[in-house]
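Intended use. Records like the one below are meant for learning the mapping from a protein sequence to its folded structure. Do not use them to infer anything beyond what is encoded.
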Amino acid sequence: MTDPAVHARLIEIVGDRNALRAEADTAPYLREWRDLYVGKTPMVLRPGGREEVAEILKVANEAGLRIVPQGGNTGLVGGQIPDDSATEIVLSLSRMNRVRDIDADGFSMTVEAGCTLQAIHDAADAADRLFPLTLGSQGSCQIGGNIATNAGGTAVLAYGNTRDLVLGLEVVLPDGRIWEGLRSLRKDNTGYDLKQMFIGSEGTLGIITAAVLKLFPRPRAQDVAFVALASPRDALALFSTARARAGAMLTGFELMPRIGVEFAVRHLPGARDPLATAAPWYVLIELSSGTEGADGGNPTRDLMETILGEAYEAGLVEDAALAESVQQAADFWHIRHGMSEVQREEGGSIKHDVSVPVAAVPDFLDEAIAAVEALVPGCRPVPFGHMGDGNIHFNVSQPVDADKAAYLARWDEMNAVVHGIVARYGGSISAEHGIGRLKRDLLGTVKSEVEMDLMRRVKAAFDPNGILNPGRIL
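Structure written out for the chain above:
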């Protein structure tokens, strides 16, 4: 950014008011919400359409400028935050937030990258349809970032990751060309599926500016239960029973420890303990049906009661609360979705976004909890997450009254212990959050030389000058 002429060209593309340079204006774009990453930038560009994005990338590619795409700034691996060199320009997609089209009959919708996930939910709901991707940050995260990181969430069990919810993409390439891939086809077997190259690429291959998303029938019946159990092993047995009984109607199965519920009740506005008696572990079960009962009954309620009744008779369930209203169901989910947020109120938290085979979750938890407690006596493991797909957020809060900085200084040491256990179970060190900067140096330890070589070749083919999100993933 030493060339004033290049500086002026970028400002001209988006207009002076959308080229933020004052420290007070750029500050919200430079800090990750957990404060793990704080960067510097010469400017934040806020384009209003794909043509402006294309012009920005043309200039950047010619001048060798580094561009960091950013959505709602809710990422958890630092990929959306510029480094501290003050040479990386942030490109925010937040102004590009239109719902371009909803095809209710074709069960699809076309949206721009800056649409918040909540706005997409609302638009789909207004069309009597469902977009199932559900995240705790859905009020602020943007769909472009969700796609670029292949976000997971609490609906993966029934609907899949973001990768499974995208029909087509519009992408601006590093040289400024625009790939027109906004197709709503369910079948298109004409060569490489290019959209899959950009989904999960974390802004390193191109900038997603719009997407065609899959929609689904909106549930006509839904029930949610908050269930107390003695152990993750009992939770696994309950999951097996629920999956066998409910099949595709099982749309949520989330595991939570007692300490996580205590944190939520203590710090999350509006949260309260759903059950009168405490238990070591809980699961949140959701059943959904696209049809109502033939006799006017509630098919999900009847099935939920059958599942829980059998589990109680088998000694798997200690207690349970069934939501009696939409609001009570939302209150149950509020506890689960707030579990990441409330841990910051308890001091330092060392995070692990890992997955293991579903059947291995109880053994993994036993081994990993014992290992971190031996490593840091007094630490407070708070493992929670998507039991139904094997993705556990194995977070560990600092000991009470410990020094936060000293505890967080052991991040890499604890990661090594937990990730070593994950490896023994054939799991993944990044189930849904991505690689970004946080796990970049770990990638080579879990990928083969062939895989790393192929990824580098893909990066070089799409972005030979290395201008897009350099130092992320690779």
